[in-house]
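During the no-cost extension, the postdoctoral fellow (Dr. R.K.) reprocessed legacy sequence entries with the updated structure-token encoder. One reprocessed record is reproduced below for audit purposes.
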Amino acid sequence: MFQGFQRVRERCECCGLAFGGEDAGDGPVAFVVLIVGFAVVVPAMLVEAGGGWPIWLHMVVWMPLAVALCLALMRPAKASLVALQYRNRRQDFDGTA
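Re-encoded structure tokens follow.
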């Protein structure tokens, strides 16, 4: 489905479906940022309230975790949004009725 990290192919390699109607935009990014933000900020606040790490330790632990989670969730989020678009706006994709 993907050509590179986030770029959607012109056609499906298996069935030949054209992805001309795909228009995910910034939707996956917004969902991923909200989910990862919640998943990282809440534990960071609990750690800070419980014992209070130094700021450098927060940066070393939480920032790489946030980046890794964002990168790990970006492709599944984009694929899910394209699949939902295909399911709900099938007529916009070329070659289907």
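The chain has a mean pLDDT of 83. The two ends are 20 Å apart (CA to CA). The remaining legacy entries will be reprocessed before the final report is submitted.
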